[in-house]
Amino acid sequence: TTMQDASPPSSSSASSSTTTTTASSTTTSSPLPLTTPKFIAKQINTNQIKEGDHVVVIAKGLREYHNLTTIHKTGKVHLAKDNVSTSEFIGHTYGMNFSVHKGKLTPITTMEAEVLSIVEKDEAVSEGANNSLLVDDNTSQKMSQAEIIELKSKAQGGDVIKALVGNSSTFQTKTEFSKEKYLKKKHKKHVTTVQIVKGNTRSILAAYYCKNPSKICFLREDALAQILCFANVQANPQMKVMVVETCQGVVTGAVASRMGGVGRILHGYNAENKPTLGALKFFNLTPQQDATISYFPLTFFLPSKSSFNPTATTQQPAAMGTPEEEERRKKMQQEAESVKEDLKAGVDSGILITKHHPGAIAHQMVDKIRGGGVFVIYCQSLSPLAELENKFHREGTACNMSLSESWMRDYQVLPSRTHPHMSMDGASGYILYGTKVHVPVLSQSSSSLLLPPTTTTTTTSTSATASHHNTETEDVL
How far is the C-alpha of 52 from the C-alpha of 55, rounded, in Å? Predict the structure, then answer.
């Protein structure tokens, strides 16, 4: 799937320099060049981990763990079998790799560089080496299990791997490919590697999908990429996108990131509860991007009796007591009133991703989309979307509809060892998208203008030509 990032159109008054005009002189200041020390220092500061940052912690060992956490001096994060203080990440650069030993972090290079530096390559041995004489009978390792456990309690992972290689009687007879595979396998088993990355659409979605995919409706990155493309989400100041989701705010954050702080996003939520947007803060949106998101209760266009929200009311979420939540509640009430006008005018696209049956709200959402706008509906099951597609087709509500299944395959890409992964997930769900057809509601007087006039023809001539002409006229009418 191709994801196109559109930048906001520049206005005619925008320029690359700022001009300040006074009564006596005109001064023009240019932006900092990309090579100035101040610009470089600014970029370095943005890549450094600071207190209060919302980050994604990736721990790689026998399994891969993803944690969404906030950096605090007194915070803790659980990584495999160790609890690590988040204060140890402060000051380091995003993307660095660390090894964990007894709750302490040690910066390391990438895993491949570390494991390959443990043993020096012997080209003379590797040229004639092969694996035809290797027998997997667990007798090639001289160290016992108790000795390995004792060594792990005292030494770090790199020293453990060196000891395993030195006590292996078959390591030197392996090929270079087998040596590298052996080292990576032991590295995953005995060393926990940790990496800190910035929160973005892909990393946040991977974290939820790895830990608890049911919270995001088993939405995978390839499916979300198609949804954003089908919904025509772009950085357009005039664009209005309606999002109704039960994915912890992942979809709303992805739309806000792609629109770049312009346009408007209308997020619908259950009227009885406040919006569930736990993942939104990990996108680290700028104030300009966050200001484009407005919230409204689904009761604005949802009937009170519905399978999506059986007991929906028009009441706003109750105050939780804290001043911050009370201020947010008042802001949401003010935004909800302004959203009504936008819904009446119509939005450009609508996105619906819910763990409930989409039929309860899909029709109401499509009604709020202007003619020529697009809608995208995601569901884990095929039958609800097939029903919606047939109903939209019968009613003439939409055209250019398509119902597709998202599928993705991961590949291992290595010299002479490129192949698909041995195990991977199946389908991520089904996507229905189409274009809204605007059917104008005509009055009886205006609709009569579109019909051909009905006239009564009085024929006084008995000629065959006139009779034939009248017959043809009646057939046409």
Answer: 9
Residue type, 239: M
Q: Are the C-beta atoms of residues 206 and 106 closer than 8 Å to each other?
A: no
Q: Which amino acid is at 438?
A: H
Residue of 320, 336, 354, 375 lying closest to 248 (CA atoms): 354
Counting residues of the chain whose pLDDT is more than 90, the rounded percentage is 28
DSSP 8-68: PPPPTT--SSEEEE-SS-EEEEPPPPTTSHHHHHHHHHHTB--TT-EEEEEEESSSEEEEE
Phi first, then psi: give them for residue 242, nearest 5 degrees.
-100, 130
CA distance 249 to 19: 41
- Beta pairing, strands 369-379 & 264-269: unpaired
CA atoms of 258 and 477, how far apart (whole Å): 54
Measured between alpha carbons, how far is 175 from 131 in angstroms, rounded to an integer? 7
Segment (H or E) for 432: strand 430-436
Query: Do residues 389 and 377 touch, judged by C-beta distance below 8 A?
Result: no
Whether 226 shows a pLDDT value over 50: the answer reads yes
pTM of the model: 0.72
What distance in Å separates the CA atoms of residue 4 and residue 404, rounded to the nearest whole number? 20
- What tokens does 355 get? 């763990």
Give the mean pLDDT of the chain.
75
Provide CB contacts within 8 A for 131, sequence distance 6+: 174, 175, 178
Read off the pLDDT of residues 435-455 as tens digits, 9 standing for 90 and up.
Answer: 999 877 655 554 444 445 544
The pair of three-digit structure tokens given for residue 171, joined into one six-digit string: 């390591």
Compute φ and ψ for 229, nearest 5 degrees. Answer: -70, -45
How are beta strands 54-60 and 64-70 bridged, if at all? antiparallel
Q: What percent of the chain has pLDDT over 70?
A: 71
Contacts of 356 (CB under 8 A, 6+ apart): 246, 307, 308
Sort strands 76-79 and 398-405 into parallel, antiparallel or unpaired. unpaired
Angle between helical axes of 221-230 and 250-259 (0-180°, round to 10): 50
> 327-344, pLDDT tens digit by residue?
767 776 777 778 888 888
Residues in the chain, total: 477
What are the phi and psi torsion angles at 55 (to 5°)?
-130, 170
The answer to whether the beta carbons of residues 429 and 406 sit under 8 Å apart is yes
Ramachandran category for residue 432: left, alpha or beta (phi over 0 → left; psi -120 to 50 → alpha): beta
